[in-house]
Amino acid sequence: MLSKNLTAASTRPIILGVLKQGRSYGYLIIKKIKDMSGGKMEWSDGMIYPVLHKLEKEGLIVSDWVMSKDKRPRKYYEITEKGKLELQAEQEQWSQVTAVLDMVWKGQIPKILPDAEV
Predict the structure, then answer these.
(1) Out of 1.10.10.10, 1.20.1090.10, 1.10.1740.10, 1.10.3720.10, which CATH number does the structure's domain 4-105 have?
(2) Which among 38, 37, 17 is positioned nearest to 83, based on CA atoms?
């Protein structure tokens, strides 16, 4: 299982990324994340819905209720154009973090001499 801190930090870009692929509802997003992570990321209702509501309040996603005859109503979420721009910014930031982590793990840390004392 991933740490709570890492899970919390990655929730926003993951949700936006999933919604960029198409509309979805909360429980299905939870299932997709669990499947994609091989069960290592298990999100709960109590974790995802506050994030979805915050993303909606920020205008990054929109939602609507879909009624069905044989199923209970579901609230579907969809990414907005503003959300797509935010996702692109998140991707760039995560790419930078990943690149630095990769260098650190491979031992490719540059040798920098300390500044000479005056």
Answers:
(1) 1.10.10.10
(2) 17
